[in-house]
């Protein structure tokens, strides 16, 4: 893909919207359909440098124990929502990571399948969740068509170099009446607009594509889905998105809070190297956390969540 071509085959030239905090990258947006993408996009070799080994942490435990417990709770909520909207059957999690959501769904009677690029994470998913995992590209996954009851893209669609083709594939894999679940950052949300390059969920260059609500709706509807619901309230993603973006805007080291919450062995930046910043983060927390929670409530009410969860049904 060149910088000037929209995957929706729009005619107008894309316009640059902002320069990312990661030097040398910018966000382009198509004025016709609203889809955004990272320029320049990186190849498989180059993007590896932006996922250092510490990214996943030792034994794949990324956060400190309190937050790991919270993450577990969020996962249970996610699988409960999926259970309410579908009946147990084969479920495919695209970008399944350690298979934590698949493990939850298995306990609820689903048969777990995954696609994952990281061999290390995939091995975990096989052992812990009993999932059948294809390591590699979704397009080459050897799963039968019209087979799955549910296909999930949980914050993975924006990492695809060809997200629309990924949705095409998902549509073929799903049974008629099957459920598509897509959670993505909302690049036209209040959080995104106010934070600009400081937005935590922008995550350039790891995110190749940037969806606002309309481009997301269109991508799904163009592929034979009926949208059942779009959720703007995510306690899992949105308060944190506000909080980290606020710290970034105040001039703290970029995404420093994220390091704070991690296990010491998964930190990118050791806290002791930046004691003043660490103290500053702690002192500001009682002020910024309530602000983040109020903003989260507001954006959910205004239907412009910083991240959104879309549920859609494949038409018969
Ligand atoms: Zn376009």
Describe this structure in words.
The protein is of the alpha/beta class and 316 residues long. The protein folds into 2 domains: 15-240 and 298-314, Rossmann fold, CATH 3.40.50.150; 241-297. Helices cover 36% and strands 20% of the residues. The protein is built from 10 helices and 11 strands. The chain has helices at residues 44-47, 65-85, 100-107, 119-129, 163-173, 190-195, 213-221, 238-249, 256-261, 275-301; strands at 15-19, 26-29, 36-39, 90-94, 111-116, 132-135, 148-154, 174-185, 209-210, 225-231, 307-314. Strands 6-5-4-7-8-11-10 form a 7-stranded mixed β-sheet, sandwiched between helices. Helix 8 (238-249) crosses helix 10 (275-301). The protein is globular. It starts with 14 loop residues before the first strand and ends with a strand. The model has no long low-confidence stretch (mean pLDDT 89). Bound molecules: zinc ion. Zinc ion binds at residues 6, 8, 10, 30, 32-33, 35.
Q: Tell me the radius of gyration.
A: 19 Å
CATH homologous superfamily designation of the largest domain: Vaccinia Virus protein VP39
Average pLDDT taken over every residue: 89
The topology string of helices and strands comes to EEEHHEHEHEEHEHEHEHHHE
Under CATH, the topology of the largest domain can be stated as Rossmann fold
> Main sheet, how many strands, which sense, barrel?
7 strands, mixed
Helical residue percent band: 25-40%
Number of helices: 10
For the record, the count of structural domains works out to 2
Strand content: 15-25%
Form type:
globular
At CATH level 2, the architecture of the largest domain is 3-Layer(aba) Sandwich
Low-confidence residue ranges: none
Structural class comes to: alpha/beta
The top-level CATH class of the largest domain is: Alpha Beta
- How many β-strand runs? 11
């Amino acid at each position: 893909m060149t910088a000037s071509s929209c995957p929706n085959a729009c005619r107008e030239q894309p316009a640059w919207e902002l320069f990312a905090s990661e030097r040398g990258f910018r966000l382009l947006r198509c004025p016709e359909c609203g889809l955004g993408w990272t320029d320049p996009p990186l190849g498989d070799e180059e993007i590896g440098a932006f996922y250092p080994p510490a990214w996943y942490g030792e034994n794949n435990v990324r956060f400190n124990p309190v937050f790991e417990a919270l993450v577990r709770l969020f996962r249970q909520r996610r699988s409960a929502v999926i259970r309410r909207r579908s009946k147990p059957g084969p479920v495919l999690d695209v970008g399944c990571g350690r298979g934590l959501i698949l493990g939850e769904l298995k306990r609820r009677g689903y048969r777990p399948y995954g696609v994952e690029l990281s061999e290390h994470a995939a091995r975990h998913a096989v052992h812990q969740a009993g999932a059948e995992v294809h390591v590699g590209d979704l397009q080459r996954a050897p799963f039968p068509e019209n087979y799955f009851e549910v296909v999930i893209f949980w914050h993975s669609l924006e990492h695809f170099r060809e997200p629309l083709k990924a949705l095409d594939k998902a549509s073929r894999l799903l049974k008629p009446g099957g459920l598509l679940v897509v959670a993505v950052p909302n690049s036209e949300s209040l959080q995104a607009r106010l934070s600009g390059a400081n937005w935590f969920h922008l995550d350039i260059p790891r995110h190749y594509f940037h969806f606002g609500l309309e481009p997301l709706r269109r991508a799904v509807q163009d592929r034979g889905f009926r949208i059942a619901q779009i959720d703007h309230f995510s306690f899992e993603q949105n308060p944190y998105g506000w909080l980290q973006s606020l710290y970034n805007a105040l001039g703290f080291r970029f995404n420093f809070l994220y390091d704070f919450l991690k296990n010491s062995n998964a930190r990118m930046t050791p806290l002791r190297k930046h004691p003043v910043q660490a103290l500053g983060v702690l002192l500001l927390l009682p002020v910024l956390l309530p602000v983040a929670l109020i903003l989260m409530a507001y954006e959910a009410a205004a239907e412009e969540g910083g991240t959104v969860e879309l549920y859609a049904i494949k038409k018969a």
